[in-house]
Amino acid sequence: MTATARRGKWFLKEPRADASARIFLLPYSGCGATMYRQWPSMRDGVEFCAVQLPGRENRMREPAFDSYEQMALALAEALRPYLDVPFGLFGHCSSALAAFETAARLCETGPAPARLFVSSEVAPQDGPYGYFLGLDDEGLSRELAGLLIGMGVQPHPGLIDLTLGVLRHDVDVNKRYVKPDPPVLSCPITSIGWRDDYGVEPRLMDGWSRCGETQTVLFDGGHYEFVGAPDGLLDLLVRGVR
Predict the structure, then answer these.
(1) Which class for 134: exposed (0-12), middle (13-18), buried (19 or more C-beta within 10 A)?
(2) Residues 117, 237: contact at Cβ < 8 Å?
(3) What pLDDT, in 10s, does the model give residues 58-110?
(4) Residue 82 in contact with residue 14, Cβ under 8 Å?
(5) How many helices (H) and strands (E) does the chain have?
(6) Which of 26, 11, 24, 21 is nearest to 44 (CA)?
(7) What is the pLDDT of residue 3?
(8) What is the pLDDT of residues 156-171, one digit of tens each?
(9) Which residues contact 67 (CB under 8 A, 6 or more apart)?
(10) How would you write the chain as a 3-class SS string?
(11) Distance of CA 63 to CAs 12, 147, 173, 234, Å?
């Protein structure tokens, strides 16, 4: 089987065979895998694999998932060929919920993740939550512009217009995600807060302890700090899967 056949459309490049561990990075609402363009591909033998979801970037013509549970079923199967080494899942804001559902699925079917990393998001039973859930298209456009600038991309109006529909769909998926009694994961969880986060204050993330054994970590920075791949965050992820 060729590398392209194996990879399909879930990765922009084939994960490396020589990785000692892998961390699968789920994209933020409205974004695709290229949002991790500033991240290294590998650190101390641990590979960072940005996941490309349908409905965005080179998969724009494919229908996006209508629920995190639906996404988890498909993503768990797509990742299976690459779960031959210890691995983790990372999600920021709403993608933390998608990562949680994927981790829950893999904990059921095996192999289970070495760790789930959730950043800037309340636990499933405490949502839906987030100031952006109440924003109109104008407000969401401003958020997109700020995120694109943080990614080093010029936020041209045409690009904002193209991405706004993806973000609106993702926001609606988040609004529908109601999980008053979430499963308890067999893998550990690291809950990552950011001191200057105006979207999800770190104190609101305490509920993750109901979802499994949870470690809480607090970093300096705001809601989009993770985009720049800060060393402290990368080191935390690497330690978590080794």
Answers:
(1) exposed
(2) yes
(3) 999 999 999 999 999 999 999 999 999 999 999 999 999 999 999 999 999 99
(4) no
(5) 6, 7
(6) 21
(7) 38
(8) 777 788 788 888 999 9
(9) 173, 176, 177
(10) CCHHHHHCCCECCCCCCCCCEEEEECCCCCCCHHHHCCCCCEECCEEEEEECCCCCHHHCCCCCCCCHHHHHHHHHHHHHHHCCCCEEEEEECHHHHHHHHHHHHHHHHCCCCCEEEEECCCCHHHCCCCHHHHCCHHHHHHHHHHHHHHCCCCCCHHHHHHHHHHHHHHHHHHHHCCCCCCCCCCCCEEEEEECCCCCCCHHHHHHHHHHCCEEEEEECCCCCHHHHCCHHHHHHHHHHHC
(11) 18, 23, 13, 32
Integer Cα distance of 215 and 206 in angstroms = 10
Q: Which helix (H) or strand (E) holds 117?
A: strand 115-119
**Interstrand relation of 42-43 and 46-50 (parallel, antiparallel or unpaired):** antiparallel
Whether the upstream peptide bond of residue 128 has omega within 30° of 0, thus cis, is yes
Tokens matching residue 16: 């490396």
Question: What structural domains does the chain harbor?
Answer: 3-236 (3.40.50.1820)
Of 78-82, 128-132, 148-152, 199-203, the one with minimum mean pLDDT is 148-152
What φ, ψ does residue 30 adopt, rounded to 5°? 80, -5
Contact in structure between 49 and 82 (CB atoms under 8 Å): yes
- Token pair, residue 228, equals 């720049």
DSSP 97: H
Six-digit token pair at 122? 């309340």
